[in-house]
Structure prediction request, 384 residues.
Amino acid sequence: MDAAGGSRNPLPRPCHVLVLLNPRGGKGKALQLFWSHVQPLLAQADVSFTLMLTERRNHARELVRAEDLRRWDALVVMSGDGLIHEVVNGLMERPDWETAIQKPLCSLPAGSGNAVAASLNYYAGYEQVTKEDLLTNCTQLLCRRLLAPMDLLSLQTACGQRLFSVLSLAWGFIADVDLESEKFRRLGEIRFTLGTCLRLVALRTYRGTLAYLPAETLASRRGPSPAWAPQAPADTHVVPLEQPVPPHWTVVPEQDFVLVLALLHSHLASELFTAPMGRCSAGTMHLFYVRAGVSRATLLRLFLAMEKGRHMECHCPHLVYVPVVAFRLEPKDGKGVFAVDGELLISEAVQGQVLPNYFWMVSGYREPSPRRKSQQRPPPAERR
Prediction:
């Protein structure tokens, strides 16, 4: 069964949470924002807390691997998407991972991208906001105490690495912008705008092969065995990377790409409404790719339109979108890197599948109304 399947009661009142805060995230003002914007609301809502500051990369991962989770009703992560990535992977590395991954998580945005927080803000029915307004909205969600199950993306690489993503895997243009703009972190969210402009000037292409299992194909077939195993969650839709993908998968022939993006949620950053077609059903993710041949001007228009979720209305022939449950991506020329939740992963063959309803997050229950279906560009007829 799904790890977070079924329903769950809200967090108790009063409740006690562990706050993991990265004081260097974003513009470096997370601690100041916690005391000015978060703590007063928590006090009014009977939410007590213990505050831990992370000191280095993977510190949060180490902390949750060793922490006695029974002491807390929830783990609150105040930083960007990278810290949530650390926490989830730390929980999945514990001997008691089956129990640990069910500890509710909360995202309070204080980083540069804040895509998970922006997506939760959207699912709760709030208007798209950024910075302190987004932080306040997400803190109010914690004060309401409602929980919702979230999907997890299980990834395998050619070198045998296993990791989990709470947001996305990007290759090509988006990954380059994410990682190359790291030096502008102190600028906050504008780092991505600056990075986009710089990468557009030196636009690159990346050769590779992409394959995926469309959600509609899976729906027409008999369901797989449950994604669950004694020592680790099993990836039931994929085969070993050294084997060809199953015959019912769709294969995009080897070619040059500008970008490939597998995305679990609606936003890629607080001001990038990347998936306006509505929240995916459990076990499904958004897959976008842009073929080589797109002009710099068109790519710029797509990213500008993405702020309000209007990029699918551009009807760009190089942009393809399809909902999938699993994918495989094989770089052929060694160019580029992968960004998993904004964190670096070397460029090698990788595959992943969605684990449905796998962990709990503080969230609103309101489902957004999906956009018109005409905004979705169907994938071209690839080989099946």
Q: What stands out?
A: The CA atoms of residues 81 and 195 lie 18 Å apart. The chain has a mean pLDDT of 88.
